[in-house]
Amino acid sequence: MDVTSAEDKRPVSPQYPKGRLWAIAMRKMVWVALIVLLCGGVAFPREARGPIRILSDLDFTPENGVVAGNGTPDDPFVIAGWTIDASDADFAVQIRGVTRPFVIRDLEITGARVAGIKVETTRNGRIRDVLIKGAPTGILISLSRDIWVEGAKIVDCTDSVRLLFSRAIRLASLWLERATVAVWFTGTTGSELRDSFVSADLGVLLELGASGNLIVGNGFFCRVPVRSGGGNAWDDGTRGNYWSGFSAPDADGDGILDHPFPVNSDEVDRFPLAAFVPPTLELDP
């Protein structure tokens, strides 16, 4: 007859030597620290490299900075994790004649004789979470379509962003500071500038048939906020932009000023914002 009590039959935890217990505890602490870093959005240090030139779909290779992807909509080519000093080159990143989907992200670019990033005769591209400093033009997009630029910080560039004869370009959550012209639309249509901080001598310039564009949710802190040839929208029907120096009552406290902002003789922002919250960027300091 088995007279062992139920308490005696409970599983017994293995008894490890003190040294092994210390090693197990340390491994757990390391994993917890890694999880905290990843969940907190902390990036690992970028690696320095030279300028990148992608002049066809065949140039998406590891030698040209590609770290992942196979060029499909679900798995685009990824160029990421680089610091590029392009002071002796025209461009830090040049993309031309590309049709396969790609993403450029987590880059820090300094200098460049012409532009930090140039995208030309290309479609299906995304530029995210990049920092560009000290170039004549931060991002230059020419003769392209379906390009998104999000979460970029561009400072100390003569022109932050230039769009030349392009279509369906989406600019969102940008930080544009210390520029002569922040965003320059030349012959560009059907595009957007949203939810961005804009500080420049001239905020937005639209010329040579640049029409059908939507500019909404931005904060303009500029000597001259806008020069437009007409035919563009400055609100989406419920909200417009914040215009530094423009004041009007907000009687109902809904965050929309009670008087429209006159962009020019033909265009108005019907729903100017009473306050502006700058975009939160995920760039590593």
Strand-helix topology:
Layout lengths: L17 H22 L7 E3 L2 E3 L11 E3 L8 E9 L5 E6 L5 E9 L4 E6 L2 E11 L3 E6 L2 E6 L2 E3 L3 E6 L2 E6 L2 E12 L5 E3 L2 E11 L6 E3 L2 E2 L3 E5 L13 E2 L17 E2 L5 E2 L16
Protein architecture, described:
With 285 residues, this protein is mostly beta strands. The protein has a domain at 48-236: Pectate Lyase C-like (3 Solenoid). It has one helix at 18-39; strands spanning 47-49, 52-54, 66-68, 77-85, 91-96, 102-110, 115-120, 123-133, 137-142, 145-150, 153-155, 159-164, 167-172, 175-186, 192-194, 197-207, 214-216, 219-220, 224-228, 242-243, 261-262, 268-269. It has a 20-stranded mixed beta sheet that branches. Strands 21-22 form a two-stranded antiparallel ribbon. It is elongated, with a radius of gyration of 25 Å.
Principal-axis shape: elongated
State the CATH topology of the domain at 48-236: Pectate Lyase C-like
Which regions contain 5 or more consecutive residues with pLDDT less than 50? 1-14, 30-44
Mean pLDDT rating: 89
User: What's the SSE pattern?
Assistant: HEEEEEEEEEEEEEEEEEEEEEE
Roughly how many Å is the radius of gyration?
25 Å
* CATH architecture verdict of the domain at 48-236: 3 Solenoid
Strand tally is 22
Helical residues, percent:
under 10%
